[in-house]
Each structure stands twice: as structure tokens, then as C-alpha cells.
Amino acid sequence: MLAHLCGTPFLPPLEGAILALEDVGERPYRLDRCLTQLRLCGALDGLAGVALGQLTGCDDGDGAAAEAVRRSVRALGVPAVEGFAFGHEDRNLALPLGPRATLVAPAPGQEGPPRLLFDEGATVAWPGQGGA
Q1: Residue-wise over 36-61: b if at least 16 C-beta within 10 A, else e?
Q2: Regarding the domain delimited by 3-92, which CATH topology (the fold level of the hierarchy) does it fall under?
């Protein structure tokens, strides 16, 4: 969906953002094409990192979809982590959009799992409703 927003006023600014990617039913070549379009139009310039969720039904179990995304993301030169439980599977954790976050992508040999840490609350009060 994000690639289809290229050239429209609805493409969100991604500079400094952690891009959360997931998809369902897209073949590896189409994932590569969408990410290439986003890169070539400049939408991914200044991206802070990539968090890859579930790629449901995107390949025949051979990992080609994840590898296509890995190749495209490596070309960006930003930290990237995969295996998050957001997307279209039974285990589908909520992914708040908008709050400041830190992507922890340990280098090979470094301790600790990859993770996405939210630096601020994921909810805000509606105008006129009080709260912080």
C-alpha cells in the first residue's frame, strides 16, 4: 500500500522514522519492486531503520520473500530487524504508530535479542479530553 502512495500528498514523511513492514500474499518480486519504487522516489531517504513483521503467504516456505526484503533493506544501509509479531498471523501484536521508538539491532556476536522499544506512551488524550 505504501508504494502506491508515491507521488501523492498522502505518502507520509519517513525521514527519521522506523519503517514497519509486513505484507500478505505478495510474491517476492513484487515486494522487491515496491521497495525499489519507494527507494527511487526518495521516500526512504533519511529512514532511521526497518522493523520487519510477518510476510504471510508471500512465498512457498523457502524464505524468498524475506530474502527479497532483506536485499532491499540492506541497500538502504540502515539498522533492520525481522521477526516481529505484527501482520496477518494468529499472533498479531498491536503496533502503535507515531510514538518515538528505538530499534535495537544487535550486530552479530552482540548480546541481546533484536527489539523495538517505545520511548513514550502509545496513547494520547484527544483534544478537550484532559490528560497529559
Answers
A1: ebbbeeebbeebebbbbbbbeebbee
A2: Glucose Oxidase; domain 1 (3.50.30)
